[in-house]
Amino acid sequence: NSTGATQNIIMGYRAANSLTSGAKNVLMGGKDTAYNLTTGAENVALGYSAGYSGNNTGGVYIGAYSGPSGSAGHTNEIVIGKSAIGKGSNTVDLVYLGRIRYSCLAFMVLL
Fold first, then answer.
1. Could you tell me the pTM of the whole model?
2. 8: nearest Cα among 49, 47, 40
3. Which of 34-43, 73-82, 100-109 has the lowest mean pLDDT?
4. How confident is the model at residue 108 (pLDDT cuts 50, 70, 90)?
5. Is 38 left (phi over 0), alpha (psi -120 to 50) or beta?
6. Backbone torsions φ then ψ of 109, nearest 5 degrees
7. Among 63, 69, 36, CA closest to 50
8. For residues 44 and 51, what is the distance between their CA atoms, to the nearest angstrom?
9. SS3 category, 104
């Protein structure tokens, strides 16, 4: 479906199915990775259906079914973990050890 999308790396069945003009995205996984991304740029989605919904910029979605918060237009949203859902622009959501969520501050301390 891409009409003007450039500099993207896309792998997977129906990955980036709706992409029309987004650029510089890395979208890899099984079925439906970044399926609804149309114009978002500089996103990374890795995992089965990762980043399925949303149209964001600079987002990172790692893990099966991980995805952006409900609305589109966010920037710098980082989501890591199976079925983790983002919290919006400039946030980090790390799911670890049985669905315990760590904030960005706690994540930094863990490093």
1. 0.84
2. 40
3. 100-109
4. very low
5. alpha
6. -65, -35
7. 63
8. 8
9. helix
Looking at this protein, which amino acid is placed at residue 82?
K
Contact indicator for 15, 34 with CB cutoff of 8 Å: yes
C-alpha span between 48 and 69 (Å, rounded): 17
**For residue 25, with 0-12 CB atoms within 10 Å meaning exposed, 13-18 middle and 19 or more buried, which class applies?**
buried
Residue 109 predicted with pLDDT over 50: no
Binned at pLDDT 50, 70 and 90, residue 69 comes out as: confident
Amino acid at 30: G
CA atoms within 13 A on the CB side of 13: 3
Tokens (6 digits) for 111: 């490093």
What is the model's pLDDT at position 43? 96
Residue with tokens 């989605």: 45
Kindly state the tokens that stand for 48: 């089965």
Provide the residue type at 57 as one letter: T
Residue in this structure with the two tokens 């003009």, named with its chain if needed: 21
Return mean pLDDT, the chain: 85
